[in-house]
Amino acid sequence: MLFKRQSAEVSRGSIEPALDDLDFDGARCSGLEKALHFVMRREHPDVLDLGPMCGATVTFLAGLGARVTVEDFEPATLPRRKSERPLQIDRPNASFDLILAWEHIDFMPPERLEEFARELRRLLTADGWLFLFSRAAAGRPFGRRARFRVMERNVVAREPLDEAPRSRWVHSSRAIEKALDGFLIEGIHLRRNQIREVVATRVGFDYSAFAVLGEPLRSSPELEKPPKKNAADPSRALGKRRRPPRKAVS
Asked: Of 4, 66, 87, 204, which sees the most CB atoms within 10 A?
């Protein structure tokens, strides 16, 4: 089965352009093209679309040979309280070769970006790819979420949902790069409509801090390497080195 989806109702969206929503229809998307170029070389890569659900996108990616999972993700719109559990997407560790996060970070306050990025990193394979949009131009502090329709490897259309506007933030490129700690930024491209395309790949991740969906704890490949031979004893790092005993001179 090439397509899995959690059950959820998705509103039908309008494709009428709205400046405040920074819509674009059929625009060239070089960042997505780059990610798909590398990911689709793999045999049946696993792709996570964070939604909202777009059937045309699922059909297109499945036609390229991908196994597509759609998660109807709800962005965290308020700073996390101390008693609140960290953001978590109920999927196993290292499950996906590509995550399409679209513009979800624009609907999150700055305090939640690193938390969100860390969860995406957990879900990606060791050489997984991340693609997302983020607006660079200040506009209204509210906006409608949208579904994204992939028409070609390098062509994407944004279709706003018929729902109430939500709080929307403008994050600096520096803030995005800081949040994506543990990712290698492959490129940030600013489009003419002031939308940034961000492409990144995952670097080493320590799974030992997580136990997701009953999975046993496991370490990242970097932590599983055997210690080097003749490694110095860290407990003696601050002590004085002992000199070998001198041989008696006859």
From this structure: 66
Q: What are phi and psi of 194, to 5 degrees?
A: 65, 30
CATH at 126: 3.40.50.150
Alpha-carbon distance 122 to 209, whole Å? 10
pLDDT digits (tens, 9 = 90+) for 56-96: 999 999 999 999 999 999 888 777 777 677 788 999 999 99
User: 218 lies in a domain?
Assistant: no
Domain of residue 132 covers: 3-209
Tokens 């601050």 belong to 238
> Parallel, antiparallel, or unpaired for β 46-49 and 124-135?
unpaired
Q: Is residue 171 part of a domain?
A: yes
Handedness of CA 55, 31, 35, 87 (dihedral sign): negative
Taking only the tens place, the pLDDT of each residue in 24-40 is: 667 789 999 999 999 99
Alpha carbons 47 and 36: distance in angstroms, whole number:
10
In a domain, 243, yes or no: no
